[in-house]
Input
Amino acid sequence: MFLITPMPCVPLKPGSGTKPFPGLQVDILDESGKPVKPNEEGFLVIKTPWPAMIRTLYNDPDRYVQQYWSKFPGYYLTGDSARRDEDGYYWIIGRVDDVIKVSGYRLGTAEIESALVSHHMVAEAAAIGLPHDVKGNAIYAYIILKAGFEKSDKLAEELRQHVGHEVGPIAKPESIEFVDSLPKTRSGKIMRRVLKAKALGLDPGNISTLEE
Output
């Protein structure tokens, strides 16, 4: 006879991913591979094998090792940036490759874009980081305006100030470009690497997943 026990339940915190599922041992590491303090942001990693873990990439086992196991040897890199609060709850900030480091501050593209689209004239927005001699990276934003509104330098500056008010002065885009469309996958995800390659004059690589 087997004794079946219910899964442990914890109170929810709005916006938090709560605590790891049973069978998962996770941690948050800084750039040097050391665990961060509570409420500090870092790289979300998995410390031990877990049920249903990915074991390789089809026809590309070397890339699997390089992508997921090389940055922190012995740890699986999820690719997410996160923080853990004083109660042990995990908060997922976003994808590591969607984080822009400006003057030592790590800013998620999602929070910058959310600030931009909260402006009543903005329909869609995308933010990328471009190399900057002083800041390390500068924020470059692409904006699609709602119907009936016209682009202008005055509006661009208004949007910069709006982001500064919503997120903080460090998050103000260095430049804003008004566009008619954004490169997206068929599932609707903005392909920021295509925007970055275009801004830097580089080859965008494989774009077979683009919607158009």
Q: What stands out?
A: The domain at 103-200 is CATH 3.30.300.30 (GMP Synthetase; Chain A, domain 3).
